[in-house]
């Protein structure tokens, strides 16, 4: 690294693939950390994994090389090559080694193969994560992280308080939180419409939390029937906060 | 002296496991059949005592008994070995267990205590651990049984299950586990990893003095870690657990102070000084005299504190701390007679102190009194109890013809063997202090008068409480007259 | 059959498929199917262990699909390779899986009713993933299996309450970051060495002396970082407490003992068998820094455990502290430390299993694991309490449980390398664990509440109704696995020398410094 020009040259020309994948990686990482919306976090996670896939695939490239599928003349299973001399009889499952001069004409297939697997893993992770998001939405009514944390705190507070005294007690007025409740009043109503089975707390404005409260006691055992009975209620679209 | 013959015999293991068998019986009998349950304890205690006493002639004839239990590491076995000092300690512990059980029956039933099954069960476990310590052949084995004792006495100390028990239990376990895990364990692993290429057994016979290979500083640090790591020995400042543990019922205090816990502590310290370091290494070490100084300070300071205590059990607790200092002092003196005197003192003090504790408990059962100042005139009502107290006090003070005299005599002789006259002075001063805090109790009981004299309800405690204390008081006499057997055991007399 | 090593992974895999197929017809068949496949898997891993011990080089190898090792540096086939370390840990994984699946009958029915097919499928696939991680000899295959284990783990946790689902999301994000970083590191490794087989990578590194290459350093950092995130090493531990605490009982019993320990195995494998001892410890500066990070990790985890008021969350922070022990044991770079670390992997799996099984029973019977609700349990469930506290004493390090021996080796290792900070931290955390468990004993045993007020009427009365102190032990299907786990904790302690001999055989090839001289 002598002059500045040469660093940029190295970075943007010689090692362009590294530069790009690192940029994508950082974008994905930033999204996972900084975004508030859970779906956007997942998009960030997807970008993160895609950056790595891009990296691998980019390292397979060679100059003047074609895709790693046998040209007809090189195909060891085909009629154009004498395949008898390459095998001891029976099925071929081991890799057939081509001469070095031929190999250099194909890009490296191994990273592609590995990345097929990685893509599958990524898809499975994304599917699983989306279903968890859906579950969170049904339970807490939000997929914004800060609102979710508030809901969880309330649930925790209720649980901790509710354990010691078996009788229902009034929710102590938490100034900030009740204001939030008022602001999100419409959302609350749309989340409700459920039969409350075990009411630990009085307080009609907290149906969701009660549901999740009773859920946490039974570890989700009773949740399934209730959610099936529930009608999806129209809710006004929340403004995107992030 | 010729090489001792080594005999393989299962009797040490039987002595160790007899309480476990008793444990099964105790749990099976449970709260529903208390007499059966107590019988199981007695059977276990008798079997243990019988087995241990049967080993005495074998050891007196010059042999050593060993039994290999399991191989802890590839070069360190869990080995039981019966030699003189260990056997002496085991005899004391097992015989006194019988007495303590009888006493506990009277005490617990007299006060209608709760959870007696749990009490007897953990008592048995503690005695098993004590046997293990007495019969250990190497440092790791003794550490195992030491820890077992800490844990098994915890439910005994917190028996009352109230706020004081919680505080007492926390102090007790805090001191003991902190010292053993943070001071003792590093010292142990240091010895084991650096000596002999990491293949050392730290056997008490074969590996004496190997610690001398370390540098001076390391030796002194190790000595410090071992001395305070065995916090059951009650050297100041690691002594506060002992008064804190007085929240336990009196049989537990008797067990703690006389039979098991503190004796285990000082016995371990004695083993470290005599059989890990060895007299030669100790003598050559610069600055090892600080142990004698700390022990002497412990003796004097605790005796002074005992003078100021009005609660009888606390007074006895501080007295114990002082008496333990004698044993550590004797071990640190590093002469034959000094260390012999230390082991003897374990036995003599056990007998004397347990008498005193039994008396304190009997007084509590009979009258509910806990404070020395309340004891005026009690001697007329409870002559047996206070008479035994007097005998026990005289034994602890060290007057002939009671056992305590022999051990103090040998301690003094041992100190003179190495020209440490100041130790003899300390012994004399502390004996004087013992007089000042023990005798007034008996004197107050017998020779002072008060209104309690006219109270007809005060009489002797129930017989299961009184019989043991008479027996142990007589035991103090016996120990004096049979002292030559004890001296033969520990090798001070051929 | 001779290829037991593959059947270790195949039995749970096929069992999982069978569970999801047949479970649709009859829910009752899932439990026996799961137990059957776990028993078969344990049988195979015992066989494999004996095969490994008896084989001349102490390893058993199996190439998937019949490919060979002749071409390239050790070929392009996926190899399953069990050496002594792998075989031991696989036995632990499958053994723990068997005990948990036996235990799972009642909790699964109660907490996830109607979802048994799904649950047991995910359970068996999780075992497949974990056992595969410990057996595979291919770096990329390791990534795949890590993700298999992770995905099934996410599913298992999210099957619980809503709280668990919320915690799972966090876990997914962090877990994916970790696994992807590992994948990136493997990419760099492949770039420089041209092979993905672990032994092959080591051979190429040594043959071409790649120790100073910057790409190797980057690979090392990425791999290590990924694995540290997945093993919940502080400060990447944030996903663990909430996820394991709110998960269903069986899930936490399965995941808590296994997942982090298997990741530590991965770290040891990467350091010793892939990058090599010289590279990992001498060419990088990690060996100087890691013990200090470990010190911070252990202290923070121990202090956070003190702040918890519930058994399960306390135990999860203890897991984080134990991870610190093991990572420290590896990075102090000497023989005793590695022996201690590997032995601690085995013993920590056993004792964490014991503790979580006990906590699960307490949750089942008392509906809560909060400290306030535990009074009188010694009378109510004595056997459960004995099993639970054997695990607790093992964590404290009281002999003769296995925890004592692993602490012994780790302390010795710290002394030999003169890593006093690590040793002092071990002592400190041991004291914290003493406080944790004896505080728990106090809350159960004493008639005193947290602020020190006496409850009850004295003389041992705990202030409870007769109903609460009636003897009401756990159902046998939960109690017997707990007692088996507790006896394993003691047996591994008593026979620790056998296990350590095997570990020593494994470590012989690596020429680690022992440092035994007189001082």
Layout of secondary structure:
The complex is a heterotrimer of chains A (242), B (494) and C (519).
Chain A: H1 4-14, H2 16-34, H3 38-59, H4 100-103, H5 109-140, H6 145-164, H7 175-183, H8 185-191, H9 207-218, H10 223-229
Chain B: E1 5-8, H1 11-29, H2 34-60, E2 63-71, E3 77-82, H3 84-110, H4 116-134, H5 139-157, H6 163-194, H7 216-229, H8 241-244, H9 250-259, H10 261-284, H11 289-308, H12 312-333, H13 336-367, H14 378-381, H15 383-397, H16 403-417, H17 421-447, H18 463-481, H19 483-490
Parallel strand pairs in B: 1-2
Antiparallel strand pairs in B: 2-3
Helix pairs in contact in B: 1-2, 1-4, 2-3, 3-4, 3-9, 3-13, 3-18, 3-19, 4-5, 4-10, 5-6, 5-10, 6-7, 9-10, 9-13, 10-12, 10-13, 11-12, 11-17, 12-13, 12-16, 12-17, 13-15, 13-16, 13-18, 15-17, 15-18, 16-17, 16-18
Chain C: H1 4-22, H2 30-54, E1 59-63, E2 79-83, H3 84-103, H4 105-111, H5 116-135, H6 139-158, H7 162-193, H8 198-208, H9 214-230, H10 239-246, H11 249-275, H12 277-283, H13 286-306, H14 311-331, H15 335-366, H16 377-380, H17 382-396, H18 402-416, H19 420-445, H20 466-469, H21 476-494, H22 496-507
Antiparallel strand pairs in C: 1-2
Helix pairs in contact in C: 1-2, 1-5, 2-3, 2-5, 3-5, 3-11, 3-15, 3-21, 5-6, 5-11, 6-7, 6-11, 7-9, 7-10, 8-11, 9-11, 10-14, 11-12, 11-14, 11-15, 13-14, 13-19, 14-15, 14-19, 15-17, 15-18, 15-21, 15-22, 17-19, 17-21, 18-19, 18-21
Describe the structure.
The complex is a heterotrimer of chains A (242), B (494) and C (519). Chain A is mainly alpha-helical and 242 residues long. Among the domains of chain A are: 1-67 and 105-160, Helix Hairpins; 197-232, no CATH class. Helix content of chain A is 59%, strand content 0%. Chain A has ten helices and no strands. The longest helix of chain A has 32 residues, at 109-140. In chain B, 72% of the residues lie in helices and 4% in strands. In chain B, a hairpin with a 5-residue loop joins strand 2 and strand 3. By secondary structure, chain B is mainly alpha-helical. Chain B is built from 19 helices and three strands. Chain B folds into two domains: 1-275, no CATH class; 288-494, no CATH class. Chain C has helices at 4-22, 30-54, 84-103, 105-111, 116-135, 139-158, 162-193, 198-208, 214-230, 239-246, 249-275, 277-283, 286-306, 311-331, 335-366, 377-380, 382-396, 402-416, 420-445, 466-469, 476-494, 496-507, and strands spanning 59-63, 79-83. The longest helix of chain C has 32 residues, at 162-193. Chain C is globular. Chain C folds into two domains: 1-280, no CATH class; 285-514, no CATH class. Chain C is 74% helix and 2% strand. With 519 residues, chain C is an all-alpha fold. Chains in contact: A-C, B-C. At the A-C interface, helix 3, helix 5, helix 6 and helix 9 of A face helix 6 and helix 7 of C.
